[in-house]
Design goal:
Elements lengths: L17 H14 L4 H6 L3 H15 L5 H14 L3 H13 L4 H9 L5 H16 L5 H9 L4 H24 L13
Helix pairs in contact: 3-9, 4-5, 4-7, 4-9, 7-8
Length: 183
Amino acid sequence: MSSQTPRLNSIEPEAATGKVAAMYGQAKSMMGLVPNLFKGLANSPQALEAYLSLEQLISAGSLNPAEQQLVRMVTSVHNGCTYCVAAHTLGLKGAGLSDEEILDVRRGASDDKKLQALIVFTQEILSTKGCVSDDDLSAVRAAGYTDANIADVMVVITQKTLSNYFNHLHDSVLDLPPAPGLD
């Protein structure tokens, strides 16, 4: 991957019409740009709308912004998505994590016991394809997470799996600062 040429058509903002143009306008006002991920997803307005609808649901959910970004990062690392690791490096920074804390999350660690439990639980969901044990559920609940939080983790994983896999398929060109390398 990373051929610097996307494998699917990219719908540029100046060529967008109708629903896609409206979604691009919202993205540009929120992020300052229309990400290349969106330009590829826009080949199907429904695919872009699905991604953005999940974003709205996640934002209104029970996880705080740092927890949302943490689950996104853990999922993106698990799925090997360079594009999303870069995006969620910025997201974690925006949620107040330091550069070193972000690198730790990418390594699967956090000094915050509650966030560490969320990292481990998310990794377990991903590695077992959702077939977590009763002990895994007990551990994340003991850390302070509710059943609503657990359900919302699944929504975040779903959205990230969509974007991670799509980025692999599309070979989205990175239009964000790359994430720093891990030592």
